[in-house]
Amino acid sequence: MLHLPEPRPDGILIRMIRRTLPLLALALAFSTAALAQDRGTWRAVSTNARSITGDLVISGAKLTVNMTSFPLANIRSLTAADAAAVFGTDPGAPGNGTLYRLSVPPDRRFLHHNTLCGDEETQWMATWVEGRNLQVAFFSGSSMPALTADALANASDVCGLFTYTRW
User: Is residue 154 within 8 Å of 145, Cβ to Cβ?
Assistant: First the structure.
């Protein structure tokens, strides 16, 4: 009768770690990429974007519009229901977005001497990425915007909706 040596418990653990570590690293890479999908340089597509902001850049902790940067604070991820309410997207379509806090003074002028929120400070930005397209909504007001269809139907703090595409 042939007797095989008993496997060492620490050897099993090492093999398990070696097998799962690459999968965990891959999952982390994809989740990080998903969280950062709105980051990068975006070309203005919609009339609002071409008339007011021009192209924009979203990076780590800042938004750059017309060569002027503004600090950004990531508040929370958007849900598909949020995006459907704000941007009219299909709630079943893949995509992701973020609600950011920022401060753009009301006297800050962009293209054609336009402002983002008229005479009010721009304090919130919602983004939604589907494929190569980015939708952005700017909001005024110190309170976090309620991103539901009912709340937005009567909201006076929505400054504008803008569409961009990936360079």
Answer: no
Residues composing the chain: 167
Q: How many helices (H) and strands (E) does the chain have?
A: 4, 8
- Measured CA to CA, the distance from residue 125 to residue 118 in angstroms comes to 15
Q: Domain count of the chain? A: 2
Average pLDDT of the chain, as a whole number: 86
Domain that holds residue 15: 8-36
Cα 106 to Cα 18: distance, rounded to the nearest angstrom: 55
69/87 same-domain check: yes
pLDDT band (50, 70, 90) for residue 48: very high
Residue 2 in domain: no
> Which tens digits make up the pLDDT trace of 70-87?
999 999 999 999 999 999
* Same domain assignment for residues 118 and 53: yes
- Indicate if 83 and 105 belong to the same structural domain: yes
Supply the DSSP string of 32-73, one letter for each residue: HHHHTTT-EEEEE-SHHIIIII-SEEEETTEEEETTEEEEEE
Q: Are residues 121 and 105 in the same domain?
A: yes
- pLDDT of 166: 95
Query: What does pTM read for this prediction?
Result: 0.78
Here the tokens at position 115 are: 């402002």
